[in-house]
Structure formats: C-alpha cells, structure tokens
Amino acid sequence: MADERQLAEMTFMTVAEVAAVMRVSKMTVYRLVHSGELPAVRVGRSFRVPEKAVHAYLEDSYHGTA
Q: What's the structural domain count of the chain?
C-alpha cells in the first residue's frame, strides 16, 4: 500500500516540460532518457519523467564555482 501511495503522489513531466525547466532542447532530454541518465516511464509513444528525477539529475550535475 505504501508503494501505491508513493506512486499516486508522484508528479510526472512531459519531455517538453523537462526541456523548459532545464533550458535545453527536447532532443537533449530524449538523449538523457535513452542513455538511462534520466529515468522515464513510457506512456504510449511518449515519455513521462518523474519531477523528482529531474531535480535529482540537476542537483547531481551541478558544479559550483569558487
């Protein structure tokens, strides 16, 4: 039941929404999904990316400047 609750609370984003947040092209998002760097769920012919995964990817990729 806990898994069902977690899944119900998940927010998914379209590839276009992810691209807008990351300020990259949709093709870049598709490359990240296909390479496995960004997890996604396939829904029909399109992908949905968990919002938490986008934030985690950005945090992991962030390189601070001194």
A: 1
pLDDT 10s digits, 10-20: 899 999 999 99
pTM of the model: 0.82
Which residues are registered as beta bridge partners of 43? 46
H-run or E-run covering 44: none
> Cβ distance 13 to 48 under 8 Å?
yes
Q: Is 36 left (phi over 0), alpha (psi -120 to 50) or beta?
A: left
* Domain carrying residue 14: 2-61
Degrees, nearest 5: CA angle 52-54-34:
120
